[in-house]
Amino acid sequence: MATLTVASISLAACSSAGNGEDTSPVAEVSSVANEAHDAAASSAAQALKKAPKFSVKNNATGVSVTKPITVTSDEGDGLAKVTMTNESGGAVEGEFSEDKQTWSTTEVLGYGRTYTVTAKDKNGKSKTITFTTDSPAYTTGVGLSPLPDSTVGVGQAIGFNFSSAPEDRQAVQDAIEIETSPHVDGAFYWLSPTVLRWRPQKFWEPGTQVKVKANIYGLDMGGGLFGDADNETNFTIGDRTVSIVDDNTKTMQIWKNKKLIKTMPVSLGLEVPGRVTPNGWYTVGDQYDQLMMDSTTYGLALDAGGYQTMVDDATQLSYSGIYIHSAPWSVWAQGSQNTSHGCINVSPENAQWYLNNVTRGDVVYVKHTSGGILPATDGLGDWNMGWDEWSAGNAEQ
């Protein structure tokens, strides 16, 4: 009996630590298995959690510089941290939404740059992507007219001058915003491959406020051409000043806000081919205290009857070289006969008065000459194209 008792005690000693804990090999194996199961379960649960989502794919190329890069928390826990750098290590600015569900870039991206974005969600999952933006074959800027904060006449068209010719004209037009107060309807027309204009159907009303934005940065204009920078301008329509030049009477009447304020004698282009002043609407352009009139700039050589003459108080009416300017040598003919090469000659006193009393965008109407109509594509002859043709546009040509 004693032997059996000892065996029983020895067995008890092997299966108990004396404090109620099971330390048998079987128990140890069971504990390790439980820990492994818990770890596996935790790992599996972590694996099921989703990393943040990106608006571009990893290793993407040709990414548009105009669209913000966004990162989104895919499970709704919210984003913990987002960093974005360019290939030089420079940080790109961005901001979180109020609920931390999204993050978006707040600065414009550059052409041909490589960016790396790392995002970590509050659930602990993180992800890193790299992408490269568009690398244009070449770019173009756009110059706008009139200049910002200017006051111009009722005939002023809005000008967009590109350094290179866009192939996708419609995309360019769609990227332009024109805001008028009060509202005015208008339309685009391309005067040349690089010159776009916008004007209303009728002359502006005085006091109209105009804001223009050309949002061309990042714009694919076709043929590998992209816009290199946005541009904007704003202007106000001033007084309604209209000058009427009548070849029958050899006079110019200046009307301001529908009231006649001055009449002056003029001498127009001589009645020979190439010198007759064209009829039609002209828009006042640049103005100069002094200007070299050089016939060779439009193809008339000096030995073929051309000229190089310095004139005073010159007001531009066309890109082809027609000006209202001081002509003391023809005062004797002003009011009675035509002697010029196409310009509107006036006396020194009248030329100075005119320069000081008209402004860019004012309109001049010439009538009763034998010179045909100034082409609408001349540069300052926009109003010589009928509205039906102008409003139909030519973006698809």
What's this, in brief?
The active site is at 325 (proton donor/acceptor), 343 (nucleophile). This protein has helices spanning 2-15, 25-48, 169-174, 348-357, 387-392, and strands at 53-54, 60-63, 70-72, 79-86, 94-96, 102-105, 114-121, 126-133, 138-140, 142-145, 150-152, 158-162, 176-181, 186-192, 195-200, 209-214, 225-227, 231-237, 241-246, 251-256, 259-265, 280-283, 287-294, 308-316, 323-326, 344-346, 363-367.
CA distance, first residue to last residue: 117 Å
CATH architecture of the largest domain, please? Beta Barrel
Question: Percent range for helical residues?
Answer: 10-25%
Radius of gyration: 39 Å
Instruction: Give the number of domains.
Output: 3
**Strands across the major sheet, in which order?**
21-20-19-27-22
What does it look like?
This protein has helices at about 1-15, 25-50, 170-175, 350-355, 385-390, and strands at about 55, 60-65, 70, 80-85, 95, 100-105, 115-120, 125-135, 140, 140-145, 150, 160, 175-180, 185-190, 195-200, 210-215, 225, 230-235, 240-245, 250-255, 260-265, 280-285, 285-295, 310-315, 325, 345, 365. By secondary structure, it is an alpha+beta fold. The relative contact order is 0.11. The protein starts with a helix and ends in a 5-residue tail after the last helix. The model is unreliable at about 1-15 (pLDDT under 50). The chain has 5 helices and 27 strands. A 5-stranded mixed beta sheet has the order 21-20-19-27-22, with no helix packed on it. About 15% of the residues lie in helices and about 35% in strands. The chain has 3 domains: about 55-135, Immunoglobulin-like; about 140-240, Sandwich (Immunoglobulin-like); about 240-385, L,D-transpeptidase catalytic domain-like, CATH 2.40.440. Pathway: Glycan biosynthesis; Cell wall biogenesis; peptidoglycan biosynthesis. This is DUF1093 domain-containing protein.
